[in-house]
Specification:
147 residues, 5 strands, alpha+beta, Alpha-Beta Plaits, globular, 22% strand
Length: 147
Amino acid sequence: MTPDPKLSKHEIMRLAEDVEAGRRDESELAEHGVKAGEWVEIDKEELLRQVENQDDQVFIVLYRDDFPYDDRSEVEDALVDALSRDGVGEWTGAGTGLGERPYFDISFTITDPDKALAIIRSVLRAKRVGKSTEIRLGDGTYSVYDE
C-alpha cells in the first residue's frame, strides 16, 4: 500500500507523532498507507553537517529552555502554512533532540532563500520564540530578532 496522496508529508508526520504519543491509534496511519517503525535518534551536529551549505535548505532550531510552547506544532504549523502559501518552501522534516540542551528542529526545502528567511523571521517573531532560536540557511546561522 502506498501513502495517501491527499495527506502532505507534514500531515503524515503529525499523525505519526500523535500515534507515538498515544493520542491516536496506529490503525489511523495504516488507513493512509503508512506503517510506523522505530524512531531513529540522530545526533544534532551530524544532522547540521548534512544540511550545511545547502542553499535550498533551511533548518530551524528551537531550544526548549527558551521556547514558550509545550511542543513545536504551534510554530511548525504556522511556518508550513506561511512558506507553502507564498510558494517558497516545502516542509521536509522535524524532530526533537534530547541531551544537555533539548531542542526541536524543523526543516524546509526552499526556492527563494531571501524571501524564505524574511517569512520565517516574521512567523517566529509573531510566535514570540526565544532569542536562542537559530535559523540555519546555506552556510550561515541567523537570529530571529537581529537582522
